[in-house]
C-alpha cells in the first residue's frame, strides 16, 4: 500500500485525479479529505489546497494545469479583526482557550489578555492512573497493556503508547501554567511518589482555597508552598506516613498558614501550639492527648483571639474516666443529673461584652467541642437583662406610651436584647400595667400554664402557614427560631414586587398587597393592608424599611418580576437588596445611571432573564459598564432608554429580544444595523427608534436605504423582508411613523365643561367602538375625560339610549317615580290571604303577559305576592316570575326588595319604610370595572357562563376575556346526556327506577325533574357552547341518539384545534364535522359508521375541514389512490382495505411526493392469504433475511431527487400487519 500511495503522492496529476474521484462521490468535503489522507498519506496535501481543487472539480472546472499564482492570498484566522477574535474567545471555556493559545504567539497574546479562572480544579493521581476535573469537565488517563487510555470530553477515547503520567501531564500542565490563572478551590490527591510530579504547580499558584492529601508530609508541604500566601484563605490538610513534631512546626511556620483565615487539618493539635492559631477566623482539627485542665487553657487562649469566630475540636479514644461530664466540669459549666449527650455552656470573655458558646457533644467513641464567639448587647442592656425588677420597669415604661403591643415589644427587644423576655411574658406584664395593676412582685406560679402556639401539632402549623401569604409569613418568622425554621421550609415566592421611592414617599407592592410610608409634619404615616394607618415620629424611609427589608431578605426568596423606581438618594437605600437577589425579570428606574447599575448588580446573573432600565443622561462609559455586567451578558431580553450606535449594537448579539433608542447615524447606517443583526444567532425580535430620526429622515428614506420597495403616495407603515445570507431565515422590518397629536387633549378639556359633550363622547364611542363591550367603552370614556364625570350607571343609560335614539335632550327628571306601596300591599294581603293557590294560578295563567305588566306596578306586586305565598326559595321565585312576564321587566335586586317587604307585611310586620326614601343600595354593578375584571379572573369558564346570563353589562365584562377549555367531552345515548368541561362532570338522564335526574359539577346530589332529559341537559350545555369567541383545544363527540334536541348542537363556526367524532350514522358525523372552523381545526379523529357507502367517504374527503387539517385518524378503509387526497397532511392513521389486492409500491411512490409529510401508520388484517410481513417487505423492495422472519423489518427508501428518506417499519401484531412510515430529513 505504501508503494501504491507513493505513486499518487509523487505525481501532481495523480493527486488531482484522486481529488476528482472523491468529488464525484459527492460526500462532505471533510469526509473526503480524511479518506484521501488515509489512502495517500497524511502529509500528501494541506487541507486548503485540497479544498481549492475539490470545489473546482465539483463545479465542473477540469483544468488540471490551472495556475494559482495569480489568485489572491487566501485569508487565514489571523486576518480576522481583533474584536471578532475577542468575541470568539468569549464563547470558549477556559480549557478550550488553553488549546487555542497553543496555536501561535499572536493568538496566545489575545487569549492571555483576558485572565482565565476556574471555580474548581480537582487532581487525583495513584498507581493506576490520573484524573483531573476542570470545573464540570472530566479528564482521565489510565495505564493499560498497550500504553495508556486517554478520555477527553467531547472526543473519542484514544490509546497512546506513552506512560500515563507523561501523557496526562502533557494535557494538564498547559492549563496549570497559564499566566494569571485564578482558581477558587483546588483539590490535590497525590498518592503516587514519582519524579514526574515535581514542580506540578507553578509558583506562585493563585488560589483561594486548597485541599491537600499526599502520600507523605514532605509532598504535602511542597504542594502547600506553591500557593500564593495572602491570597490563599482556606487550607484543608491531610497526609499519610509518619509526622514528627518538626514537620508540624514546619507547617505552622509557612507563610501560607500564617496568612490563612480558615484551617481544616487532620494533624493532632497540641494545646501549647494553639497560640499559633490566633490569626485564624475558624479552624477544625483533632486534639492530642490532654488532661481535663487543658480545656480551661484552651478556653482562656481562644478568648484572647481577636479574629476568632468559631472552631471545632475532636478528641477520640478516651476512657470511661474522661467523658462529656468531665470536660463540662473542667470548663465550670453546670451539669445536670442523668445521662448526657450534649451540653451547651456560655463563657463571658473578661473585660468584654462578648461570649464564647461551647457545645460539647458525645458520639460513640468521639468527643466534639464546638466553640462560637457571640456578639451581645451593650453593658447597660445587660444590667437590665440581669435584673427582673428593671425589666418590668421597662415594660411599664412601654405601656405608658400606649403604643401597639407589637411595636412596644419590638422596641423593648431592640434595647434590652432579643432573648431578654419571651413575648407571652411581655404580654402578661404589659396588660397588667396597662390595667393599672402595678404589683411587681405578683406570683404567677398559681396561674394556669397558658397554651402557646408552639404546642400546636407540627402538621397543624404547616397547615396554618399554607394559608398565609408571603408577607404574613414574614411577620410569623420573626416570632422565634422554631417558627422561623418552619416558615423557611417553604421558600417564599412573589409574582410581582414593586418598590417606588420619591422625596417624602416610599411605596411597595407584594403581588396584590400595597404598602406605603409618607413623610408628615409629625413624622411619618405608615399604611399596611387590613390595618388602620400608623403614625410615627420616625423618618419615613427608616420606618418603611423596617417593614420592607425583612421580606426582601427572606432566605431563598424567588421573584418573577421586580420593579424598582428609586428617585431619591438616601443612605437607607444602600444594600436595599440582598446579593444575589433571585428574580427572573427586573425593571429599574433610578435618579442616575450609577444607582441603576448598583441595583442591577444585586441580581443573580443567569437566573435573571429580562432587564428594563430607564434613566436620564448616560455617558458612553456608563453604557459600557452596563454591557460589561454579568447580568446583561446572561440576559435574554433587554429594554433600555439608552441610545446606541451601530458599533455598540454588537454587544447585543446574545439577546433574543431588545428595545432601545439609536442615535448618530446616516441613511447608509441602516444597512449596517441590518447586517449586524443578521449575524445574531439567538435573535428573535427587536424594536429600535428615536423621535429625532424623523427630523432628518422620513419613512421613505429609511425604507429605501434598506432596499425595500416603496409605493407611491403617503405612507404610514412599510413592511420589508430581507433574507439572511447563506440562510433560510429572514429579517422582517416594520417601519412606522408615530405622530403626536394634541386633538385628544383639546377634546378632553371641552368634555370636562359640558354635559352635552359628555354625551357626544358616549355617542362617538358607541359608533366608533360599537364592536367592543360596553365596559371597554366606559374605560375609554374615563381615559378620555376623567374618572369622575359620570358613573357607570349613568353611562350605561346614555350609552344604550344614544345607541337607539341619538337624542341628547331627553330629560330624565320626568321619568315616573314609583308610587307609595303600603296601602296597596295591605289591601292585597287582605284579598289574597283567603285565596287558594290553585285559583290564583288559574287567574295568572289567563291574565299574564309581559306587555300587560311592564307598566302596571300593582299587577307586578300581585305576581310577587303569588311567589311569596308559594313559600319557595327566592331564586326559584324570581325565575318563575321572569318566565311569566319577561326577563327585562324587573331586575333581581328590586324583586328581592319587594319580595321580602311583602313577606314581612304578609306576616303582620307592618313597616312604614318605602324604597323611594331608602338610600340607594350598592349593587354588583356599582363595583369599579377593574374590580369586576379581577373577580371574573378568578372564575372558571363554566362559572363565567352563569355570570354572563345575569344582565347585559355583566355579559360584556365576561365576554371581554375569551372563554377557553382544554377539553370538552359530550356523549349521548338512549338513557343519558353527559358532558365534561375540563375537570367538571355533568349528566342528565333516566335513573334506574325510570325517573329523570340532573347531576351537576361532581355533586353527589341529584335534581329530579319531569322534562325530557335531552331538553333539560341542553338548557345547561347550550349556553356554554354558544359563548362568544369560545376556544377549545380538544372536542370529543360521541352522539349515539338522534334526538331533535341535539340538532344544531354546535354553533357555526365552532373554534377548536382537535376533534374526535363518533355518531349513530355517517350523516350525523359529517354534520358535526361541518360545524367546525376549517383552518383552525388541526387534528381529526373520525369514526365512521360501518354502513357508510363509498359516496359518504368521498364526501368526508371533500369537506374543507379535512382539506385544511394537519393530522387525521379514521377507521375508513383506505384505497391506494385515495392517498392522493392526503398530500396536505403531516400525519395520518388509516386501515388498508384487506379485501382487495394492495400495491405497496404505489403507496410508497405517492407518499414520497408529499412535501409536508412527517409520518403515518397503515394497518391491515392478515388472514394468512399471503398478505403478511414478507409480502409487504418484498413489494417495497426491502432486503429480507434468511430463516424465520423477525417480528419487525425496517427499510429505508431514498426519495428521488432529494436527500430525504422514507423509513418503513413493517411488523405483525396478532392478526394484523402494520406499516409505520416516517420521513427522515
From TrEMBL:
CDD domains in the cross-refs: F-box_CeFBXA-like
Positions in coiled-coil regions: none
Name of a matching Pfam family: F-box
Signal peptide: none
One GO process term, biological-process aspect: innate immune response
All residue ranges annotated as the F-box domain in the record: 74-121
Protein's name in the database: F-box domain-containing protein
Source organism of this protein record: Caenorhabditis nigoni
